[in-house]
Give the backbone structure.
Amino acid sequence: EATVSKIAAGEIIENPASIVKELIENSIDANSRNITVEVKGDIGNYIRVTDDGDGMTKEDLSVAFLRHSTSKLKTAEDLNNIVSLGFRGEALASISHISKVEVLTKTDTDLSGIRAEIENGNITKINNVGLPNGTTFFIYDVFYNTPVRKKYLKNNNTEFNYILEVVQKISLGNPNIAFKLIRDNKVVLNTTIENDIKNRIFSILGRDIATNLLNNSFESESYKINIYFSNNKLYRSNRFHQYIYINGRYVRNLDISRLIEKYYYSLIPLNRYPVFLLFLEIDPILVDVNIHPKKHEVKLSKDNNVMAIIGETIEEILFPNRK
Ligand code: ADP
Ligand code: MG
């Protein structure tokens, strides 16, 4: 059982950044407004994620680390209708099998908070403590019991950059949440709650990208598409600055990337890989997020014309005078 759990953990938890991603997604699902990530020392030795969200009761905690335990899907149909970021109930179980976990949590209705330690999916220590509302996870000694995987971690700066990338990507998709990232007591990223996504783009991607953005949007009863295109003709040799969000979730979708690249290339042939941000809101039933445990890759249902509409929206941005 322990071996199976460790192998299963490997599917989701590739590196410390995957832990950060799963914990932040849980914080978002718990309606947090402020999320802080802190790392110290060797990356993976100490990770803290603090939120001001719903918190967990003692009952919530008693099942949170069990495999396939999720509070987010109530029925089988919900699987076709995923609105939360988490739904597999695997992350906390996995994390607790490859690291040491400590959690502090308090709900609005409970009078006191709870502190608990977890190993291999089991709560080994639990007591009441005074806490503000919300949840803090401390993750220590990532891969302490799988030395080979620990050995394959990259150097600290590289592993930290993966974490930074995760926080940047998620924060671009959630401008209504304030994010902070601290490394060895130094604040590396700090955003305020924004009403305007442009401010968030500015604080995450910088002036160069933010000040050269074309924007267009399209809305029907079944979709909402909002695209920001960088007008900056700086050559890019990869898709690093292509950000696609479907229902708030950062995803990769080559069909969408290629479509946008094709239109853009016909306008600015120099630039194979334009910088863009695409926010798509669509009936979850048309999105298949279930194809990979890491939930990065998504497919859009072929039964709808969402790709055609994305194409038209892009065309309108790039060729506004054509119609
Ligand atoms: P999933 O997100 O797929 O439900 P996880 O293993 O990531 O599975 O989390 C298990 C459960 O723990 C969640 O369904 C949720 O009820 C609870 N949980 C985890 N993190 C938090 C948090 N930061 N705030 C409140 N509840 C949380
Ligand atoms: Mg989760």
Observations:
- Residues 156-173 form the longest helix (18 residues).
- The CA atoms of residues 212 and 231 lie 5 Å apart.
- Residues 22, 26-27, 30, 51, 53-56, 60, 64, 69-72, 86-93, 135 surround adenosine-5'-diphosphate (ligand 1) (CB under 6 Å).
- The chain has a mean pLDDT of 86.
